[in-house]
Amino acid sequence: MKQTLRSLADKLGCRLIGSGSIKVTAVSSLQSANKESLVFVEDEQHLDTALHSAAAAIIAGEFATPDSASSVAAKPLLISPQPRLAFARAERLLGSAENHRVVHPSAIVAASAKVGKKVAIGAGAIIGERARIGDETTIGSGCVIGDNTGTAAGGGVVIGSHCSIDAHVTIYPGTILGNRVVVQAGAVLGSAGFGYVKDWETGRYERSPQIGHLVIEDDVEIGANSTIDRGALDETRIRRGAKIDNLVHIGHNVQIGENVVIAAQTGLSGSVIIEDNVIMGGQVGIGDHARVEAGAMLGGQCGILPKKVLRGKGVVFWGTPARPVKEYLKELAFVSRSAKKQR
Amino acid sequence: MKQTLRSLADKLGCRLIGSGSIKVTAVSSLQSANKESLVFVEDEQHLDTALHSAAAAIIAGEFATPDSASSVAAKPLLISPQPRLAFARAERLLGSAENHRVVHPSAIVAASAKVGKKVAIGAGAIIGERARIGDETTIGSGCVIGDNTGTAAGGGVVIGSHCSIDAHVTIYPGTILGNRVVVQAGAVLGSAGFGYVKDWETGRYERSPQIGHLVIEDDVEIGANSTIDRGALDETRIRRGAKIDNLVHIGHNVQIGENVVIAAQTGLSGSVIIEDNVIMGGQVGIGDHARVEAGAMLGGQCGILPKKVLRGKGVVFWGTPARPVKEYLKELAFVSRSAKKQR
Amino acid sequence: MKQTLRSLADKLGCRLIGSGSIKVTAVSSLQSANKESLVFVEDEQHLDTALHSAAAAIIAGEFATPDSASSVAAKPLLISPQPRLAFARAERLLGSAENHRVVHPSAIVAASAKVGKKVAIGAGAIIGERARIGDETTIGSGCVIGDNTGTAAGGGVVIGSHCSIDAHVTIYPGTILGNRVVVQAGAVLGSAGFGYVKDWETGRYERSPQIGHLVIEDDVEIGANSTIDRGALDETRIRRGAKIDNLVHIGHNVQIGENVVIAAQTGLSGSVIIEDNVIMGGQVGIGDHARVEAGAMLGGQCGILPKKVLRGKGVVFWGTPARPVKEYLKELAFVSRSAKKQR
């Protein structure tokens, strides 16, 4: 959707330097920019490259204002205190072409399902009994939403408005999603947790009840092929704004706080609690019933033992078992030094 | 399915204390109990909470019998030597409402497939040539069972009776499942193993034959989005009662023993042997041709080198390379102490 | 497809010792061989077992020629400098029965899609707008190729010739695959990368533009349920001949070189560069913007920090942070020894 720089600057809250009548059609990298592209730079270092790129205009920080002589006239500038954020928002403003807002004739929507306005449902998608889908949500091709063929806990799936559920997503019955939730292809929401009881007489395992449900709040995003189990008896809950990467595993009864970030292939065992604003690297493993308190940061591949409580807003933890990174780096240095001496 | 406490106590082999005519409809946690709920407690510590909960009745151990004065009259009790197990079984007794036992008209069942009695097949599921599906098995919506479009080893898929195959499961041709097998959404059974031969003249890799098959015995349960490769020339086999969590990878030719438990995101390379009753934490990694002998326990994230043999029934191993946990903890303590001294 | 040993020897470039008129129908392991099987041995040690197996003929190295007395007459031999490679190729020669080369009537192919000759498309597969599928490619049942329901970057998917795309694969719009690419069930190609910008005023995250695409070159193979993100602004690229196992995660903007091998559950963060001929074990984790130079080998579970550059053709790295394995083993030995002394 072609827009003038003036219009974009207004919507983004940017200060415009240069001609507002120039039109751009898309954001782009510096390398692949063309004469209708909008690019961005976050530091003075890359400003020159941007000015010499093919781009039509540049989003930049205050550093790029006329004071910095070289930028005076070369290209129009949109000055923002948070240029990367303005760039992200510009993409959405430029990209929001109207999608197909239709239910594909091959989709199978149960008679008891309630589908909102301007909902798109892809080819072959299956919407189960009593599902409720909010306005302007898209359900990708081949999704299975609330399949009641199996023995999963009943209850229609609820999906809010403006959600984007990509192809091949499975959502078990009883799962509840808020608004603007994004789920990428192949993710599984609301599967049965991994809970078994051993019969001491036979030595065999029997499944514990997995009859709770899964609640995903507004603005949560979930990566491709990730799996999130429903609660055993009560609920698993992912709070507002949490962002979860690909191939992440979240066990039953887990509670994830607001704005938590979880990188790819991390796994959370049952009943783990992650408080608000925690940031987790990839391949982190957390044992059951552990708690990570608000604002902690976990380095990639670190491991946290069952029932452990990790404290420390702004502290980075690393290693298995996870300890403050400074401590861990000292240990690594000690071992490296000592082993070398012994040669 | 509403049942009297008397009837439940009989079926569960519990001793009933209190009125047998009271009816319950579901199991529940202490927090979410209502007046038709059955709850359980495993230790004296939580008995009081249970007695003061809204629940109709409590499954408990011997500790809760009238000797313990407070419990005399408050609520009916079902006394079991294994209260958690009785609770798990109670859920199945209460929950076993008749499922939809129909083949959805949109399912595509090959003419040569044989489907048993009371089988449910979900919308859009695809059942390939010569598949055999046992009585009272459910196949979820969107499953692909024995797709012969590709180049996978031929042979119809065999699925036993009382299995539960959830939505979006893929089962490659030639795979054989026993009875009461549970497979959660998105799992892939019988994919080609990761075996290549390098052509030394060109430096390129070519795929080794992956023409074996996968056998999954009775009572095995497999988590969401897990992947299990078929044998290269012979078979991959998962023995009776093994329980496998989400996002687990099992390579070609692997042999998994009875009642083995494997937590999420663990990965087993080709030709690994896991003997009976081994318990593995999450994110464990095992190199090809390694063997873990019966009854060993592997802590989360530990790693076992190719061809290694791990011995020790009841021994817990941890770290990479995995060693007895006591040894590993001493090493961690030594490093931590020594590094601190050097500050 | 039954073939004479003479014909096979010619096609494989093997020297035939013994009767060329004998026919074989399949390759097999020594254990499961029957009288129409072709087996192989790589070393003298297993030759005797092969000669006493039920197999019709044996592929072997020079070590098996008549000089080695026992082999003279027992069975026909196909002598190759690379017996394992010859065996792999024999399987393809014997196995290449004509597949079903049809488009299943339940597949949904967009009117604007271009489908080549002898293409197979499985039941319920969905081929989106402007997709192009090359000759003799197979698309498994339930695949979703180029679903434009969601908000993914537009552009038809391009798939080359002789590709094998198994069941339930999702390929996002704009993804480009070369020839002879193999993708196993449940893999997701071209999903949105994990890139967010924090709004410092609200503390909330917003998605960065993920509008690039994914290019997969000739002869790449990708395992079940693996996920590969498209570029953020430009491209993610997997170069010719790379082999990727199950449940692998590859982030946005990653560049993977020719003939790279990546074992199961390994994860590569955004903008990682893996140069040609690198070999990576399972569960390896690599931080964003790291680079692994040509010919390095990474042991299972090792971890590489963001922005790190790993040099060393033929060097094996292990541990987290990854270091040359010799160094790491010395460290492990030092710690083990020292901890024991302190008892």
Descriptive notes:
The structure is a homotrimer of 343-residue chains. Chain A is an alpha/beta fold and 343 residues long. Chain A folds into two domains: 3-95, 3-Layer(aba) Sandwich (Udp-n-acetylmuramoylalanyl-d-glutamate--2,6- Diaminopimelate Ligase, Chain: A, domain 1), CATH 3.40.1390.10; 108-327, 3 Solenoid (UDP N-Acetylglucosamine Acyltransferase, domain 1). Chain A contains four helices and 40 strands. In chain A, strands 10-13-16-19-24-27-30-33-36-39-40 form an eleven-stranded mixed β-sheet. Chain A has a ten-stranded parallel β-sheet with strand order 8-11-14-17-20-25-28-31-34-37, with no helix packed on it. Chains A and B meet through strand 21, strand 22 and helix 4 of A and strand 4, helix 3, strand 10, strand 13 and strand 16 of B.
What topology does this entry show?
3 copies of one chain form a homotrimer.
Chain A: E1 3-4, H1 5-12, E2 15-17, E3 23-24, E4 26-27, E5 37-40, H2 47-51, E6 57-60, E7 77-79, H3 83-95, E8 108-109, E9 114-115, E10 120-121, E11 126-127, E12 132-133, E13 138-139, E14 144-145, E15 158-159, E16 164-165, E17 170-171, E18 176-177, E19 182-183, E20 188-191, E21 196-199, E22 204-207, E23 213-216, E24 221-222, E25 227-229, E26 235-238, E27 243-244, E28 249-250, E29 255-256, E30 261-262, E31 267-268, E32 273-274, E33 279-280, E34 285-286, E35 291-292, E36 297-298, E37 303-304, E38 309-310, E39 316-318, E40 323-324, H4 325-341
